[in-house]
Amino acid sequence: MLPLIVVATHAEAERLLDLNARVIVCGVGVVAAALATARALAQEKAGLVISAGIGGAYPASGLLPGDLAVSSEIIQADLGAWDGDQFLDFGELGLSILPTSSHTGRFPAWHLASEVARRTGARLGPTLTLSSVTGSLKTAAFLETRFPGALTEGMEGAGIAHAALLAGVPVLEVRGVSNAVGPRDRPAWQIPQALAATRKGVAAALEVWLEIC
């Protein structure tokens, strides 16, 4: 069974098509990612699912454009409810993303994530998924307070992780950093460097996976 790599855009896929894995383009957003991943896993089994792509790095992470983040945990960070100025997560609300057991949208990453990070010199930590890109330092700081050690922000990882969980397949998120999370400064994004970092992370994950097969 080949690993499955899921990316949001064709530009992200182009750097990965020559690797020994199945690559699909899911579209942008958590719902698109979950549906495409579930369909791909129903069509063909996979030994590992990798959510890959570029993303923003949280200020406290210390990550710069061109750096690489590898997930220790994939978190759907905007699941919950606002009560005035207070945000209540699914644990506080007593809700679950699964119908038969408690699950708050925090997905553990593949148990060999730390080895992938070690081989690439990447940072290992939580990666956050949101449906709307963060556009202020205040919101970035709020998310960093809620999720200590958060490295990067993307829009697909938790959807991919949810589909992988239901299929019983381990999952890993790999994000090449293109920009800082905060005010949107599109001209400052370093997309080629982020794509190169993403490829490095995915290639290392495939290498580790092959060694245990």
TrEMBL record:
It catalyses: futalosine + H2O = dehypoxanthine futalosine + hypoxanthine. Transmembrane segments: none annotated. Keywords: Hydrolase, Menaquinone biosynthesis. Residues 23-188 form the Nucleoside phosphorylase domain. Its EC number is 3.2.2.26. SUPFAM superfamilies: Purine and uridine phosphorylases. CDD domains: futalosine_nucleosidase_MqnB. It comes from the Bacteria. GO terms for molecular function: adenosylhomocysteine nucleosidase activity; methylthioadenosine nucleosidase activity. GO terms for cellular component: cytosol. InterPro entries: FL_hydrolase_MqnB (IPR019963), Nucleoside_phosphorylase_d (IPR000845), Nucleoside_phosphorylase_sf (IPR035994). It holds the Pfam family PNP_UDP_1. GO terms for biological process: L-methionine salvage from S-adenosylmethionine; menaquinone biosynthetic process; nucleoside metabolic process. Pathway: Quinol/quinone metabolism; menaquinone biosynthesis. Belongs to the PNP/UDP phosphorylase family. Futalosine hydrolase subfamily. Catalyzes the hydrolysis of futalosine (FL) to dehypoxanthine futalosine (DHFL) and hypoxanthine, a step in the biosynthesis of menaquinone (MK, vitamin K2). This is Futalosine hydrolase.
